[in-house]
Design a protein that fits this description.
The protein is built from two helices and 17 strands. By secondary structure, the protein is mainly beta. It has a single domain, classed as Beta Barrel (Porin), CATH 2.40.160. A hairpin with a 2-residue loop joins strand 11 and strand 12. Pfam families: Porin_4. It is found in: Cell outer membrane. It is a multi-pass membrane protein.
C-alpha cells in the first residue's frame, strides 16, 4: 500500500520506536559529556599561574642608637611577608611569555600592606635568557642579597651602609641570562617625564657571576643619575666584588663595596665609604648556625664614622616550608659616647 502523502514530497512518518529513542538520548548525553571534557582540553594552552609567598612574624627587641630608646614589639620581620602571583605561557620554539606581581604584606599591621609594592614584571624568555618590563629589585640588589643570611631582627647587607643603594627600580627594563657557569643581569630605569626637570634621570645596575664547582666569584655596579633634578638630589655610584664557597655543610662568603654619592647640583661629596662583609653558615640537618660581620670604614674621611656590625643566628626547620629563627645583632660604633644598638628577635617563618 502506498504511504499517504502529507504535503509536497513528504510521506507519513513511521511509528516511533521507544527503545530507539532511549538509545538516541543516551548517545546525545554521552556526546555532550565528551564535548564538555574534550573541548576545554583542545582549547587549553600551556599557560599556568602560581601563587606563592611568605608569612614571617616575630617578637623583636630593639634599642635605638640615636636616643637609646628600647622597644619590644610583635613585628613583620626583616625578610618581609609577601604574596605573589607568577606564571608563564609557552609560545613555542623555546619562547615563553611570563609575568610576576608581588605585594608586600604586614600580618601584624594591615595598613602597611599594598598591592604590587614589591615586584611587577611582564616579559619574554628565550631559552636561558629573559627580558622584562616593570618594577622590582635591580641587578645590583639581587647580587648583594647573595651575602645576606639573616631574616628576623635585621638584615646583614652592604646596602644598609648609609642606605646608598636604591634597591628597586621603577619604570625599568631588565635582562637576565645563564650561560653555563656564567650568569649576567642588567637593569635600566628611565624617568617618566613627570616634569621637565627630571625627565632625563636614569638608573643602571649590572652584575656578572662565574661559578666553578664549590666556588663562585662575581661583581656588580650601580649607577643612579639625577640629571636636571632638584638641588637636593644625589647621584650615586656603588661597586661590589664578592666570592662564595660551599662545601658540604659549610658555606662562606665575602664581599667588598665601594659606595660614593655626591650632590647632583654642584658635585659636593656626601659619601665615600669602603665596606667589607663576611658571613658563614653551618648546616646540621634541618638546623643551621649563621654568623656575619660588616666592617664599615670611615665615610668621607669623617673621624669616628666607622663601625662594626655583628649578627648571629640559629635557624630550626620544622618542615620544608616552616622554620623558627633566633637572631642577635649588635652595632659597635668607634666613637665613644654614641649608643651602640642591639637587636634580638625570635620569629616564625612560613613559605607557601
Amino acid at each position: 500500500m502506498t504511504p499517504r502523502k502529507r504535503g509536497l514530497g513528504c510521506t507519513q512518518a513511521s511509528p516511533i520506536n521507544l527503545n530507539e529513542g532511549k538509545l538516541m538520548n543516551k548517545k546525545l548525553i554521552a556526546l555532550a559529556v565528551a564535548s564538555a571534557v574534550v573541548a576545554p582540553a583542545a582549547l587549553a594552552d600551556t599557560s599556568n599561574v602560581n601563587i606563592y609567598g611568605k608569612v614571617n612574624v616575630g617578637v623583636v627587641y630593639d634599642s635605638k642608637y640615636t636616643s637609646g630608646e628600647r622597644q619590644l614589639k610583635v613585628d613583620n620581620l626583616a625578610t618581609s611577608s609577601r604574596i605573589g602571583f607568577k606564571g608563564e605561557e609557552d609560545l613555542g620554539g623555546g619562547t615563553k611569555a611570563f609575568f610576576q606581581l608581588e605585594s608586600g604584606v604586614a600580618p601584624d599591621d594591615a595598613s602597611a600592606s599594598g598591592w604590587a609594592t614589591r615586584e611587577g614584571w611582564v616579559g619574554m624568555k628565550f631559552g636561558s635568557s629573559a627580558i622584562a618590563l616593570g618594577r622590582g629589585k635591580s641587578a645590583y640588589q639581587l647580587f648583594l642579597e647573595e651575602f645576606d643570611l639573616f631574616d628576623v631582627a635585621l638584615t646583614l647587607g652592604l646596602n644598609e651602609v648609609d642606605g646608598n643603594n636604591k634597591g628597586r627600580f621603577n619604570n625599568s627594563a631588565k635582562f637576565t641570562g645563564d650561560y653555563g657557569p656564567v650568569s649576567v643581569a642588567a637593569s635600566l630605569a628611565l624617568g617618566e617625564n613627570k616634569t621637565a626637570k627630571d625627565n632625563s634621570s636614569w638608573d643602571f645596575a649590572g652584575s656578572l657571576k662565574y661559578a666553578a664547582g664549590p666556588v663562585w666569584v662575581g661583581g656588580a655596579v650601580d649607577v643612579e643619575e639625577r640629571v636636571g633634578a632638584a638641588a637636593t638630589a644625589v647621584d650615586r655610584r656603588n661597586y661590589l666584588l664578592g666570592v662564595g664557597y660551599t662545601m658540604g655543610a659549610v658555606s662562606l662568603g665575602g664581599a667588598f663595596q665601594k659606595a660614593k654619592a655626591e650632590m647632583s647640583t654642584g658635585g659636593a661629596k656626601v659619601q665615600d665609604r669602603n665596606s667589607f662583609l663576611f658571613n658563614a653558615a653551618y648546616a646540621m640537618g634541618q638546623s643551621e648556625l649563621q654568623g656575619g660581620l660588616i666592617i664599615a670604614r670611615k665615610n668621607n674621611d669623617v673621624k669616628d664614622s666607622e663601625y662594626n656590625h655583628y649578627v648571629f643566628g640559629f635557624k630550626q626547620g620544622l618542615s620544608k616550608r616552616t622554620a623558627v629563627k633566633i637572631e642577635l645583632g649588635h652595632i659597635d660604633f668607634k666613637v665613644d659616647g654614641k649608643n651602640d644598638p642591639t637587636t634580638f628577635g625570635v620569629g616564625v617563618m612560613h613559605n607557601f
